């Protein structure tokens, strides 16, 4: 390979070939030939000549592509002129490179050849943001592990804890990398370690690459150098950089393609990128090449301007050269390198060159004390890779470059080199990031790279050791934060020396630091790295310095006067910063301190932490009093200290005292965390309300699940540690002083509080007591195991509310370090969950909201584990505590355990860890006992500002004390000798058990002079003997908590013999002086004569409201004392609590037991009678008043409800006014009663008149549901592969369309439009909520809506509104036809006329256009309204669904449209009833139906278009036509549609709507009978065509024989044989040929099967007709079995003669009633068909009416697992623009793939989904959004999110696939969706609609 170096030298120093354009002729041949020739030359042993030739060529080729140089020199003209040429030249250059690499062969073959040598052990696929990848926690070693979809699906992850995610920053696939994941999870491709069986790469294959690539990469670098212009204001102009990058796109892509050729090519690239000699020769900028020189200068300028020095000093750096020797030197193999160097022009130049190359990668030793600036400032590049990375950073990480650099990572050698280079540039990267404008994008790209490098423990360890990664990181972190420090104002504003970060700075607000921090957390998760960190004292000191920047940041000062003007929202930045920059690294370090051997580490951290804390206290000038009215929630140093202590005791068996500081330090340590707890209480008491909402936000964030275990938990733990080591009296008095309730704790009934307003006193007192309860009963860090903690957390969350699985995962504070084992979703989480909770499957209320699957606590959890303390600690909102108590109450009521209002239950605690036993001394200190005694007394005496909550907490504390009484009490306790303190006069000892029975007779109190106590005491104090007796009985002195605390503090300080003696106590402001100093206080002495026990017993009486209610239970049942755990005391209210405490007190000492009995023996006198009675009277009065008010309210509500009910009933009866009248009229005289309607707007009732018509509230909507019916029961499946496609040929709509267009081809247009119905697609469906209103009322209602600006999701301009009564969506009003019900009854009388008479009547009535009452033809309000509603109906659907005529605008169109509206509504109602009428009765659909009114409106309009009587099909049905010739006469005119091709149901509707309304029943029956004959004949014809030739001749024969028997017209055999013989005259049966007969299945027809066929053929008509009859005449539908549906319906319709009930086998033919002789009319009908088939036999057959085969419509069937849909569709390209859409969606009705909001597919401002909803569903679309798993409904101009039909294993939706868990179809939900689609109730059921402005 000597030649490469020679070539390089030639390039630098050799003569420059002229930079001419390449020879133009035949470049293809030319290149290949040249390449082959060069390859051959280079393969010779002496390849000097070849090398030079190649170099010359490359120089020429690659210099040609330099358009940037021109632009850079300001020669814009040249650039503009040569613009086209430049691009072409670049392509040309790339072509040359490809040719040369391939050495004359084809480039593609070359690629394939190289790929064959790929040892693919790693996947290494690199992806960018938004790519869908997978993460499997079961297989991952590193938490950052990720897999591409392909590797994931190829591997076996069944039963694993995995999820799919959208990549935020990009990533790479780790499959095959055993450092990051377990091998069991590798996919099939990467399981085999394949390096062994891959053959060795032949030398000549990649030889050319080794020559060409260095030049190519150098060219790229020169390009980057030239393109970069250092901007003036240090802000790179985005535009220029992007321009350069665009030009470079093809080059970088070329490199990227090379990396994808596999391992062989990657190793060549690695060689090139890391070879230092190549780099030195090509880039040093020496030699004669001006371009190279210039480029080198630009490089130096770029370095300088980046604030980096280019080291020139030989000596300093030369020495270090060997130490950084990379492995690349050894591999370079330039054996002759030194020899060839002689070719340089002069040796001294070579020398110079060498000197520049000397300074190897600069390695910095951080001295332990100061941080070395050189980390930030020195860079030296030694290889292409290093300079490439440098430019990548300068250009702010272009995506393509990042991908190229990452694609190389599977090459192990490259990985190491690149990681070192990355670390070397680390400081520079962060500097660039700080300045960048696009810091978000840049952060993502940086992390994209770093996560690949630092997740690998082996690599991280190597870099830490060799490149001082930790030093670099900590230094850079410090450097970043130093730029935004401000002076701290905590404590001593003027003199504070402490600095903190300013949370308002962009760096913190925009989280710019997170790439750095996340890298740091990532490398600390590796044990080997973390150990180095914990052992390095210098690093620890620097780190604590860093943490102290956050100590006390974001200080809040309480606003006392004005409300704060500007609420800063920076607090979230502060919390995020502490969590990410301090807490997360802390958890990372803690995870490595799990065993005894790591004790040393903890000692180190604790030591430097305490030092930092001491420095902090000194810097802020803190002694013992915190400054008032300020609080910071950020004390990371305290929390580091606390968490390391906790770990030391829990896992490392360290002796706690050995790591604790002296008492004075402990006193200082506890102040700030305590201040936070007090401030929380203040914030919840609304004392900070002037600071705005954000302070509440801080209080919530502090306890919120993601923060609590890094904030409130360590704080409370630290306080517990302090409490266990400090003097308990001191601690307790500190608590009450911090909570500002000291003045409240007095026996006097009145007091003055200098620091707290009266209205806040109660909640602050509750806060203080609650805090004490939490402090004493929380065991999170004091002995609970991880599983117990998890269980407690889970129970607390579940007790507040039922939770979904994902919200539980979110709410339970995960142990923030991922390797701790309690990862959410890990085994213990699931097992604990199943132990404490029951799963409630998602339920569906039809029309209600859809529920998710929830977990709810098991009964035994409520019974034994409900822990109010934990709930209080973990609630963000105070209402959650109430919610937990309500749920607890409900449980107790339900299970019958306790009927009343229970108190929070007392829960047994886990035992304390021995190190913390001192905590319990708090419960046994006189100060607390005095407080408890005082509070009990005050509650008993009904002093103000005390609540049940206070009592509850007091009792809780007493009970805790009894549970944890330590020393066995001796009956006579000796008081401890020592300075006499004032509280010794209260209680003799400090044990609660004995203090409980100690009687206190008198108490001296300080009271305001106005207090009642003062006057009362005056007589007692006069007489001397009483005074002396007072003295003897031991008056308790005034007790001042504050004074006590001061004294203690002084003592402690004096005790510590350090320089603390010289500490000058700062003068305390008078505000904080002992609250005895207020002048107007005077001393009074109160007579008390109570002990805690006696107070408790009296309380029992007070709570129960009865005298002497307490009776010691052990007097009856001595067992209780032996077996104290009695379940009856577990749950209950205050009374139960008191009983429980007294029982425990009695158990613990005989004395107490005796005293309790004594107290109970004395009949207790009522406690001060005056007070109690007044108070009781008050409460009694209150109760009575409440009771009365409640009753009044009940009465009112009931009245209102009944009114509403009657209103609804009348309103709902409207839909068919005839219903009210019984069908059989019994009396002769007619009862005249008009239908009465209630108007829901004005509330008046009355008939609908022509002047003031009433209307039904209706919703008109276009519908294509009918068109979606198919002929098979199985619904179609949603396509999930390319092969599966859905073609809509077999839908009902398609079949009808084909039929109509066929008819229109051969027959007269106007006649065609009467032979079919339209409206299968885009038909108008009318539904009502059943409420009526006056039309004029409705108009004014619409006006008011129009003026109302706040519109709720509907458009008034389009006539939309909501029903004023039931708020259902509607868009029109259907006028009710005026008329009395009598008419209809008269019409319904059965008549005895013969069918012939009736036929004549029908014909006459149809011919008479003026048959309507005269008034209607003139303009009345009613007719106007009918016209306008008809307009509405027409406008509901699109024009294309109305106009089928060949002559647009012809009246036949309207005619067809109108009777089709009736058809659509009848057919849809049939579908709602399940497709048949077996169920009978009025269904729900019937309730909604307004067909009666609709018929009136349609009939009115149909009569305007009278049919020419000649064409009236009625004639053809009922008369024999004589002259046959007329048909033949007009050949040129198209004939009419033969009657047998007519759709009978359409005929029925035409006939009925042409009749004057209301219709008579016998006319209706007559029409039905006549049409049935036609229908039956059609059935026979269809049957005859269906069967084979032999069958036909057989039937013809048998039928002919029976013809002579009686009643031939009612025998199907005879009729069939006649039909066959008639049709045989034409060509209908001909032309069958072979292919036809093969198609017809050879069914053997039995009489039964023929009968069934005929019945099935006629059934659809009978169903529609029966429905119509039900609506027009109000007759009930009978219910029946499916097999007898035909007979029941036909008798209901009057087709069956009445005598016909007897015969056993039912024959359909018996329903026939021929108006004219059957054979004559049949032959007439058949003749029409024969004459048509003469010419068009094929079509003649196709047009025959077939049996109806439509099944109910269904949505597409979806696959079980959502992943199958997702994987196919999320990468599917759009058919319009062939790109992958951003929001793909798929239509669930027809399976079409559409782009949601895709602009590419927009047509005339309609986006694709909206367009599709109009084409597929006539305005209704149901789309599944692929990337979100939710369903979106489009209805007209509105849309709504419907929800998801895919739920995860826990019954939850996963909108937007955020959690990425596997989702499974929820069949019930899908049914609900389908139901809403079929019943057209989307508008009613879904409430949240919005306009889509055609943009979906």
Protein traits:
flat; alpha+beta; 80 helices; 1896 residues; three-stranded antiparallel β-sheet; 29 strands; disordered N terminus
Account of the 3D structure:
Strand 19 and strand 20 form a beta hairpin. The protein is α+β, with helices and mostly antiparallel strands and 1896 residues long. It has 80 helices and 29 strands. 51% of the residues lie in helices and 6% in strands. The N terminus is likely disordered. The strands form eleven sheets. The chain has a six-stranded antiparallel beta sheet with strand order 23-22-24-25-26-29. The longest helix is centred in the middle third of the chain and has 44 residues, at 1169-1212. The protein starts with a helix and ends in a 5-residue tail after the last strand.
